[in-house]
Amino acid sequence: MNVETLEDLFEYQLRHAYYVERTHVELLEELAADASTANLRETLTNHRAETAEQIDRLEGIFAWIGRRPRASRSRTADGLAESWQLRTDGTDGTIVPDDLETALLAERLEIRAYESLLRIAGRLAYAPDVIEPLEETLAEERDALERLEALDSGWLFQGDPAGTERR
């Protein structure tokens, strides 16, 4: 897609967010299945349901701008999914993020995408039909990040005062 106007940039970013959310629905399911605690499993499962709703909102925004939903690949989202797959496959010995760290990275990526979409939508003076779903989704992503960060407190290096041994 050629990006020549601010509208083009919005559509490009929207396609990116759509790809990220669709990728993360699958990733969240895998992360929840492999979660090492019940709290993490519940948090990831609940956020997966939210993410499915967020995809519906993005599809509504595509309709509002007169475009059909299309995804643009995200190397970052693909990298997170690949890192997760390598960790679960355990084939090459590469050190990759654990389930909680992967989820935290995914949330931060989504937050940045929605902040960018909101900035561009604001500059384009888009209607509340676009702004409100983006704001709702951004609030959900920030809430999910807070819930995950609460689980992260002391998670990685519990029982290792020097912080040198991974749990």
UniProtKB/TrEMBL annotation:
Pfam families: DUF892. InterPro entries: DUF892_YciF-like, Ferritin-like, Ferritin-like_SF, YciF. It comes from the Archaea. Coiled coil: none annotated. PANTHER family: PROTEIN YCIF. This is DUF892 family protein.
